[in-house]
Amino acid sequence: MIVISLLYFFAFLITLCFLSKQIDLHFKRSEIKVKIFRGLLFGTFAIITLNDQIIPIHYLSINKAIIITSFSALFFGTLSGLISVSAAVIFEILNRDSNYILTSAVLLFSFTISIFFNRKWKKVSKDNFTPNNFLLFGFILQFTAVLLETVFSIIKATYYELNAELIIYPLITFLIGKIFSTQEQHNNVFIKIKESEEKFRKAFATNPDSININRLKDGLYISVNEGFLNLTGYNESEIIGKTSDEINIWKNYEDRKKLVKELQEKGTVINLEAQFIIKNGDVRYGSMSASLIELNNITHIISITRDITTRREIEHKLIESEKNYRQIINGMHDMVFVIDMKGKFIDVNSAAVNTLGYSREELLQLSPFDIDMSLSQQEIEDLILNMANLESQSFETEHLTKDKRTIPVEIKSTSIFYHGEKMILSISRDISQRKKAEESLQKRETLLNETQRLAKVGGWEWDIVNNSMYWTNECYRIHGLNFQENIPDFLIKQSINCYNPEDVDKVMSSFNKCVREGVPYDLEFQFNSYDGKVKWIRTNAQAVYNNNKIVKVVGNIIDITEKKITEMKITQLSIAVEQSPAMVIITNISGEIEYVNLKFSEISLYSFEDVLNKNISILNSESSANVDYSSIWRQIVSGETWKGTSLSKKRTAKYFGFLLILVH
């Protein structure tokens, strides 16, 4: 009977294993509904074993039910075990067997032992929970069950039958454990494969890159992902079942040959760049990585291609940009240096090479410290550090050439990004000619200022367009001012304050008329300078035109004080001579009369017009014939004064005598 029971039980076991496997194939083990379904499945089989009509030996039925419900709890946890043991207990209660209460208690106690082993199983690796552990579990479980059944007289069995239970049923648990462990391992492998396939499917489907599987020998498309369709513009029906030759996807078929050859030699290809023709005829650049796989014993290629068209276009633009940059800087007459933030030359242009006399390679081994002659190392370091916070800066210095010549330069530096790093772009202009011109201009300006100082002529310029006034140094000196900022309104006001109040309107009117209408003026005024001196000045101005439009007014202010004083003295002397009580005759060195005063006309009766340009000999009388006039004349011409008396003839032929003083 025990053998028959064992056969029954193995039949149940095989059925349970099969059904449990089907559950694993269709559901995830962690789902609650799966645990409930397993509990009901094992509970149903436990009820079948408890049915006396199926297994007439009741104590064997109880033991089988204990094993089934206990294994449900052991393998699948508390929920599944609780459902299966509850189903068995409910069946016993409804069956109203005489010992149903004790039977239910034994089932529940066995469930408790199973949960204990389940917790232990979770703490260690399931692979380390060997069939020997199941043998121990079965022995403890069966010994406890037999002990309870015997003590509480739940069953009536012979000594032989009890010993058989203690020997056979632990062996059965051992076999069940072996079978379930093997099944568990197979399930785990199956689940991992299934999960791996799911991951591959999702990665294949959702990867934005193009993924395709092709047969190695002819390139037949087996599968493509959405990324492939998006990249090429094809529909899946237009691709699957066709070869790469048929859709003409390779721009250069040699690239496919290269791919196949490298795959056959190495098994993998990494980042093969090739051109592909998409559906609309455009050419795209792709970076392909591929490996060989076996599908149904046929070698295939699985490849992932990333669209790098944009990258290639950017690279092309960068190459063109670099080419243009090189053409621009090498076409410049100014020296160009690219300097890193450590002060090393990273790039130089042809002008730097030609001007400094170094080769490009030599310059790239140098730094600004090696070629700068005016700035100290600390000053250069400060300039470089400042570029971290400044957009640009300008300064003048001197460069040292390879042959030890110095070149004055003007440098303009700005911050740039060069190959992704922050750098300094310095443009250095040779200002040797400008410096010479500045020196020449300075000399001319010094000469002009000195000339104006000696001549007492100051120059000024009113720029109408820029609303600015410029004075030369002598202009400031005439006004009695020190050099000041060229503030237009201030300088004009300062100048106006020097004129007498009655002259201001005339000065301003003449100036404004020249500015508006271009009417020149030339005026003389008394002038009160800021150093307390009273002067006479002459001021004149004229307009400067550009495209028939007045843009400037330029003028002079001349200190004519000495001239005015001389003129006044001459005037005073002229009055004195004219009104003198003595005769005054002025001749040139030839003796021709140029001037006579009123007293001469009064005494000689000659008018000024009568004697003008006549030789003084017209005044000689007969008594003057023996006078040596040539000797007298030489004495006068030599700068001496001659004094004597003379008898001269009037216009009326009468004579008059006078004391004669001759002065050169």
Estimate the global geometry from the Cα principal axes: rod-shaped
The total of helices stands at: 22
Query: What's the number of domains?
Result: 5
Strand order of the largest sheet: 2-1-5-4-3
Class by alpha and beta content: alpha+beta
pLDDT averaged residue by residue: 78
> Percent range for helical residues?
40-55%
- Quaternary structure state of the chains depicted: single chain
Largest sheet: 5 strands, antiparallel
Strand-residue proportion: 15-25%
Strands, total number: 19
What is the radius of gyration computed over CA atoms, rounded to a whole number of angstroms? 64 Å
Low-confidence stretches: 54-60
What would you note in describing this structure?
The model is unreliable at 54-60 (pLDDT under 50). Strands 2-1-5-4-3 form a 5-stranded antiparallel sheet, sandwiched between helices. Helix 1 runs antiparallel to helix 2 (32-50), helix 2 (32-50) packs across helix 3 (58-95) and helix 4 (100-123) packs antiparallel against helix 5 (131-151). The protein has 22 helices and 19 strands. Helix content is 52%, strand content 23%. With 664 residues, the protein is of the alpha+beta class. The protein has 5 domains: 2-191, no CATH class; 207-307, PAS domain (Beta-Lactamase, 2-Layer Sandwich), CATH 3.30.450; 319-430, 2-Layer Sandwich (Beta-Lactamase), CATH 3.30.450; 453-564, PAS domain (Beta-Lactamase), CATH 3.30.450; 580-662, PAS domain (Beta-Lactamase, 2-Layer Sandwich), CATH 3.30.450. The protein is rod-shaped. The longest helix is centred in the N-terminal third of the chain and has 48 residues, at 159-206.
